[in-house]
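User: My collaborator sent over this chain with a note saying "see what the structure looks like." That's all I know about it. Can you take a look?
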Amino acid sequence: MRCIYPMFEANRILKKEALTAIRDYSFDHARLTYQDYTPGILTGCGITIHGNKLEVSPGIMKYNERILLLPEPEQIPYMATNCMQYLKARIEEENVLPEYIAYQVTFILEQ
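Assistant: Without extra context I'll predict from the sequence alone. Here is the result:
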């Protein structure tokens, strides 16, 4: 087992190995922290009503084995009805490129 911790000091340039360690640590930390959780909302994502909009607060979701961060509140159009409504999160792979995979999270309100 090998652990690399970059040194953040003035006038020091981070080398490729240090940048790779930063990248891997952040993804591995989230993956290991939530490895035993089932897919869905892990924390946050509270729902509040503001007039004619639902607001989903920032949070963390698990989709398959991926950890998705929702750093900003999301607003969804809303209108009160006499029927049960379900707020669903649609998660789609938006772009799959050699450099990255981008996921698009869209909230949908259904009856």
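A starting point for your reply to your collaborator: The radius of gyration is 19 Å.
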